[in-house]
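Weekly structure sync, notes
Attendees: PL (lead), two postdocs, one rotation student
Agenda item 3: pending single-chain targets
PL asked that the sequence for the first pending target be pasted directly into the notes so everyone works from the same version. It is reproduced below exactly as submitted, 201 residues in total.
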Amino acid sequence: MQRAGFDRAGWTRLRWRLRGAWMWPTFLVVTAGDGAMIHALPLAGAATPLVSALLLAGFINLFVVAVLAPTCGRLLRRRRPDLPKPIAANYAGTALLIVGVGVFLTVGLIHHVDVTASARERADARFAAMLYIAHNAPAPFALNARRVDLHNLGTHEFRGCVPGPDPQRWLCVIVSTAQSPPGVTRDSSTQSNEEEFRPSF
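Predicted structure, written out during the meeting:
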């Protein structure tokens, strides 16, 4: 009878362990997937190298399983007191890792929309500056219309410049993309963007 009781207890522990053995396999799969997702859909900036994306995903997911999972596991045991402590933490960690995939995807998609809109706005500003310079600037500058150097001045405003015969004198325009089509006005300054916005120490 003692042996049978031990066997039943052993099988019970084994069953719990098998039911709660999903967190670390999920961690490996989800971290690889999150890394690829962050690489394809950066959370910030224009691009994230794959190795950096994997390291970031690994760090965040490790924080989830090491810190958040035990805390959420304790909360889960309040509703499911039958769950052993390690199993509750395992369940909570697995769920949090899966939720994290959705968070990474949502943030990446939102940022991707912003990046795409910003790139489109910059392209529109460049085209407007090129068009204005090609049709309104003196010939030496108009010939360089395709060489527009664009600088972002702030929300919906850019400064586009092209060189002329004198490398110290550029023709510049201010482009506002707050309207459609973008508004373009001549800038009185003849300094290049590099000179105009050179940091002063």
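Discussion points:
- The beta strands are 149-154, 157-163, 170-176, 183-187.
- The CA atoms of residues 67 and 95 lie 14 Å apart.
Action: rotation student to compare against the earlier draft before next sync.
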